[in-house]
Every structure is written in structure tokens, then in C-alpha cells.
Amino acid sequence: MKRLLIVEDDPGLQSQMRWCFSDQIEVSVAADRDSALAALRRMEPQVITLDLGLPPDAGGASEGFALLEEILRLAPMTKVIVVTGREDKENAVKAIGMGASDFYQKPLDADILTFVVNRAFRLAELEQENRELIGQTNGASIKGIVAASPEMMEICRTIEKVAPTDVTTLITGETGTGKELLARALHDLSHRTDQPFAAINCAAIPENLLESELFGFEKGSFTGATQAKKGKIESANGGTLFLDEIGDMPMALQAKLLRFLQERVVDRVGSVKPVPVDVRVVCATHRNVQELITQGEFREDLYYRISEITLDVPALRERDGDALVIAQSLLKSLGKQLDRQNLSFSEDAVQAITSYAWPGNVREMINKVKRAIIMADGKRVSAGDLQLSTGEGEPVNQLNLRQVREQAEKQAIRQALHCTSFNMSQASRLLGVTRPTLYNLTDKYRIETSAESPAS
Length: 456
Ligand SMILES: Nc1ncnc2c1ncn2[C@@H]1O[C@H](COP(=O)(O)OP(=O)(O)OP(=O)(O)O)[C@@H](O)[C@H]1O
Description:
- By secondary structure, the protein is of the alpha/beta class.
- It has helices at residues 11-19, 33-43, 62-74, 89-98, 110-136, 150-162, 179-188, 207-215, 232-235, 251-263, 289-294, 300-306, 322-337, 347-355, 361-375, 401-419, 424-431, 435-445, and strands at residues 2-7, 25-30, 47-51, 79-84, 102-105, 169-172, 197-201, 216-217, 229-230, 240-244, 265-266, 275-276, 280-285, 309-312, 344-345, 380-381.
- It contains 18 helices and 16 strands.
């Protein structure tokens, strides 16, 4: 059923708008922020029309913007159409920038309003279908990337599309989220795969050495330069150059890098003869580049050059289901390396892995799992071995009770399956449901029912 929420404080307009929609659409009306949020939680509308001028700031737009932000935080998939006055173009543009999907200008025109709302419903429907399709494809198909979440599936699919092209790609995300791994995947899946992949960490090399590391130098160009040396860019010729922590590159070098990206020639330090180089450039940073630009620490023109495509890698805690599949995969691979095979996680470990926030992401997980493999007594790895507490996760920022219940159900099912080594009969007994019910639930939540890691 299509569900529309109209947020409008003018009773006359409320009823006029209501009349525009057929019986096929369930319409609710809210006149202020609190009742709009209550309706959002209760009915989960796919589309909301939002008058920006709400009380107590009916003449301005501050209350409308605050509500828009809150709606998109709680239910980011909602299509919000902002309603503004005829002269209010600036606010409409600002709202679109914040994530509203469309805008509509008063006075009311029933035909245009129905058209805009129907278009938003269609968009919501297509996005939902797309999410379902992504959910049906199992696991990440890219070698070395373990993932189960729709977020990472989408990233893998983008990587597959982008890899064969030469577009300069910027990968952003917290430390340890797998940015370098994805950069390597871009290289491996490209026609450059047999050529070099040269990586350089711009934050790890002192400023005065970075230039010669990147661009190389000629013999005698500075004290100690007893012979000429190729830089990283040249050594990546034919292949891929990975510039890690690009946000930390000093301003002076940013200018030189920009010149290289525009002209595709390298000027070695101390040389007057530019060398042509053919590389595909992939950059990564954990820093907020927009902020760096505002603070004058990063060149805006360079940003546009390096971000022809941007991949935002979500933190591990934001990826539904990834923590457990990655932990399982690490237990297997690191267990083999450390000669402690056939280990499994205990129930409290599974619980702790799914509820911990993983601030250091996969890198932190690698350290914790490695430690746990060494510390575990017997065949079971406990939450204590992982140095994790077994406290319950707080259901913060959840939309409503249904969402909290679904998260809890998914977590309990995954836990039961892992604890019983994917024996459906035992898992269903553990959960107090019948086997068919468990199958229905694993289908509903698209939970893996075999021990096979969904991707590797
Ligand atoms: N989805 C994943 N599946 C398997 N291993 C992963 C995954 N994501 C990250 N890793 C592993 O975690 C470690 C950290 O990943 P990586 O170095 O790519 O992160 P990063 O985002 O580049 O980190 P930093 O910003 O600190 O450089 C690597 O050993 C990588 O192989």
C-alpha cells in the first residue's frame, strides 16, 4: 500500500491536499514536527510532502529543515518533497542539497502536486526493488572481499563497473574499512592487472621526501642523489597508482600532482625533461575532504580531478551482517596461519561481535581475532578471548519497534545458526520455533543457512 504523509500547518491546505489523492493511497496529515515524527514512526510512509514553514517558525523555514534532517536520519529511504512559497527558490535548493528528493511551490495546483507525488512513489518503488535484487545476490563476488551487507554488495558492484574504465577514483571511509583492499580490487579487475600496482602513503612519508618518492629525481639534484631514481608514479607506468591518505598531502605537492593529472607527464626533481606516464590513479582518505577544502588545506581543483567517481565505504558497524561473516572468515584464515584450525566462536562471542561498534573496523577485528586464536582454551573462542564485553547493544536511532524487533530477530537467528554450525533442527530448537518457521525467517531476512562464507 502506498502511504503518504502530508506535513502542513494550514487546515485549509491540509484538506485540499488530501483531496488530491485517490483511495489507492493511505494519507495522513501532521501539522507540526512532533506529530509528523510520530506519524513517520507509526505508518512508515514512502513519501512525505513537507511544508518548510511550520510552527513555531511558520514564517521561516528553520523548523521545516530540522524536521527534514530528522526524517532522513530515521528513515533515509523516504522520499521527501518540500513545499515552499513561490519566491522561496533558495530554500528549495537547500532542501534538495540536504537530501529532499523534490520540491513543489505553492499555490496548490492539484495536477502538478499529484504528478510530483506519484513520481516520488515510483522512485521509492524502484529503489525498493533494486534493494531487493541486491539482497538476493549472495555475497560479494570480488576475490578477497568478505561481505554480506547490501551496502558492501553495492560497493562491489560499483567496483566491477568502474574497474574496466580509467576514471580517477576516490575512496573515502574510516580507518580499516578496506579502502586499500578496494583499490587493489579496482586494479585486479582492470585491463591493467598484469602491470604494476604502486601504493604510497602520503601521511607516512616526511614532506621533504614525498616529492622525490612520488616524482623521482635526477642524479645530483640534491646532496646524496648519487644516481637518478624513478618515483612511484613512473614505477606504476602501465598500471595503477594508489595514493593513500591523499588528504594529508602538503599543498605545494598538491599543485604538482594536479599538473601531473592534467598533463600526464612527470617532472623528476632536478630534471627539465618531462617523462610521459600512463597510470590509472586511485586515491583514498579517512579525512573529510570538503572540510579540508574549507580550511584551505586541500585544493578544490585537485579534489574535482581525483573524484571523478567517489566510493564512500561505510564503517563496519553500519553494515548489516558483515561483522560476523568477516570474523568467521578471519577465524578460518588466521587459524590456519597460526596452526589452530577448527576453532569456532562461542555464543557470547557471536553476540559480542555483532553488538560491538568496531571503531577500528576490520583492522581492529584482525587484531582481536588473532589474539583470541592464541588465547582460546580448547576449540571455542569466547568474548573474553576477543577482549569484548557481552553487554547488549543499545537500540539507538531505530525507527520504531518493528525495526528493533527485526534487528533482534536477525541477530538471534545468526547467533543460533553459528552456535549450531548451521544445523537447522538444532538452531530452531534453540530459538523455540519450528524448522519451517526458521526457514521462513532466514528467507525473509536473507540470512545464509550454510557455513560457506558468502564471499571470499
Ligand atoms: N571486507 C573485507 N573482507 C576481508 N578483509 C578485509 C575487508 N575489509 C578490510 N579487510 C582487511 O582489513 C585490513 C585493513 O584494510 P585496508 O588496509 O584496506 O583498510 P583501509 O581503509 O585502507 O585502512 P587505512 O585507512 O587505515 O589505511 C586489511 O588487512 C584488509 O585485507
